[in-house]
Design a protein that fits this description.
GO terms for molecular function: DNA-binding transcription factor activity; metal ion binding; sequence-specific DNA binding. The protein contains 9 helices and 8 strands. By secondary structure, the protein is of the alpha+beta class. The structure holds a DNA duplex.
Length: about 280
Amino acid sequence: MSSSSFTDLLASSGVDCYEQDEDFLGGFYPETTGSGLPKFKAAQPPPLPISQPSRSFAYSELLDSPLLLSSSHSLISPTTGAFPFQAFNGSDFPWQIQSQSQPPNAASALQEETYVVQDLQKKQDPVPREFVAAHSYGSDRQVKVPSYMVSRNSNDGYGWRKYGQKQVKKSDNPRSYFKCTYPNCVSKKIVETASDGQITEIIYKGGHNHPKPEFTKRPSSGSTSSANARRMFNHASAVSETHDQSESSSISFDYEEVDEEKEQPEIKRLKREGQ
DNA sequence: AAGCTTTGACCTATA
DNA sequence: TTATAGGTCAAAGCT
């Protein structure tokens, strides 16, 4: 698939099917097995592409992230967590999902899941990007997605409040720290933004312990805030869907255990954070 | 008036 | 043990 397809698809946005499995992975902590591992995670199968044309799945939902997959090509197996991308192979897309080994303590991992999305495009080709997002659910899987796959505001259907920003040494870009605004939800995300305003990396920490709110609009003043307005707009049109992100269509995941760790310093960091 | 962003200071983990 | 980097807090200002 070409990048042009992405844009086209983004434009046509057929995110209609996300809702379907919203509860499945919508950020909830999945049921856990006796060992403390999420069931679907415990049953984690190999990276087998599964084709389920009749059922669209929002990867973003699954991962609580802004990444959207649309329709027939972006189906994920609820039970396996595998991403069906028969139509494509990893080489077709400039981005990929990176899996990381499960932390020794699965139970703790549940409490502190970390997902990372970074802009591969940056390294691979100069295509305009405005956002990168995605994360895997239940494991330290690293997902790399072309920035143009996701919206700039990284709206993933949840309410986020920025609580800090910092320039980190390892990156030229400042990081913004966000917390989920849902009461008692400890989910956080770190967004690294380039000087041009483009998001180059998103790191999700912890999972949501609540369903994705259909509306995050604020009863009062919110309407005046650009941020709130944006949020409201997104939700109004998407109804609990991550519209911005949902607009991608064909996505190819290279779902494989990555030993890119050596070349991806972020992964090490993630592992550490995921502990 | 409520909620959000900004931003410097503070805290904590790691080397 | 100390220095440094990363992450969080919280006051102030803004929408």
